[in-house]
Design a protein that fits this description.
With 267 residues, the protein is an alpha+beta fold. The protein folds into two domains: 24-120, Urate Oxidase, CATH 3.10.270; 141-267, Urate Oxidase, CATH 3.10.270.10. Helices cover 30% and strands 37% of the residues. It contains seven helices and ten strands. Helix 2 (74-85) crosses helix 3 (94-108) and helix 5 crosses helix 7. The longest helix has 15 residues, at 94-108. The radius of gyration is 24 Å and the shape is elongated. The N and C termini lie far apart (69 Å).
């Protein structure tokens, strides 16, 4: 028999009786900088002029947690993301979406002061896929945009030691720039990344293409340090005064470890 009007249903009474364990006092009272969820994927429709392009975004969302609360209400992240996206969410850009999502999630977590969101998706240059990511924090009201692009390197040390021969390797260049009010496109960042390598990499290389790429690599041998410095130099000409971070990771071919170089500062 259904509950009469004005009286709580059996399901409502049971919900009220359930303990809110997250609201309990923790044994160790220590505030946490970020607590949240990661690797949540959702479909998104991006507006490009009069066209809609469907893609997926990978979401990492977090809030700060006060010292006197045991846990964050994790289900609220998925709940609010589901409400906002309305499968699939339509948006003009990742930077627009990330700020909207951070603001809405902060409202849902009434115990938190700040919310931080990172969104990742993929794009491509001539079918060479690269990662695009944006981050936004309500603590600073700052948005950053970045890319992770793979490239190829020839070792200048090997070439000097052998009279022109080299070991070669792929590397991954990560560029992150504080977008603020500036209009920064991930396509431009990906282009800057590709100019910083010995040579770009491509999905398909026929023999003439392979010859050209190898010749280009050996004409511009670079350490990871060279890649980062050259990248920062190009970025400074385009985005002077903005905060940025550049990191290059080389997947070494003749060593049982990888090498990296990193720069962070104001362009």
């Amino acid at each position: 028999m259904e509950a009469t009007s004005g009286m709580p249903s059996r399901a409502t009474r049971k919900t009220k009786e359930l303990p809110d364990v997250q609201r309990e006092q923790p044994k160790t009272q220590l505030a946490l900088t970020r607590v949240g969820i990661t690797n949540l994927c959702y479909p998104v429709m991006f507006r490009h002029g009069d066209k809609l392009v469907e893609s997926f975004v990978n979401i990492t969302a977090s809030v700060d947690l006060p010292h006197n609360q045991r846990g964050a209400h994790m289900s609220r992240f998925a709940e609010e993301i589901g409400r906002l996206f309305k499968i699939p969410k339509e948006t003009a850009s990742l930077t627009e979406l990330v700020e909207e999502l951070a603001t809405q999630l902060l409202r849902a977590h009434d115990y938190a002061r700040h919310c931080t969101i990172t969104l990742k998706t993929n794009s491509h240059v001539d079918n060479h896929v690269y990662t695009v990511f944006v981050s936004y924090s309500t603590a600073t009201s700052k948005c950053s945009i970045g890319v992770e692009v793979a490239g190829a390197l020839a070792c200048p040390c090997s070439m000097a030691l052998t009279g022109g021969m080299s070991h070669n390797q792929r590397c991954l260049l990560s560029i992150e720039v504080e977008a603020d009010s500036h209009n920064i496109s991930h396509e431009e960042l990906a282009s800057i990344a590709e100019k910083s390598f010995s040579a770009p990499v491509r999905l398909l290389l026929k023999r003439p293409d392979e010859k050209r790429v190898v010749e280009t690599m050996h004409a511009k041998p670079k350490f990871v340090e060279d890649v980062v410095r050259d990248c920062v130099s190009i970025l400074r000409k385009r985005f002077s005064g903005l905060k940025a971070r550049v990191r290059c990771l080389s997947f070494e071919s003749i060593h049982p470890y990888d090498c990296f170089a990193e720069w962070e500062g104001v362009l």
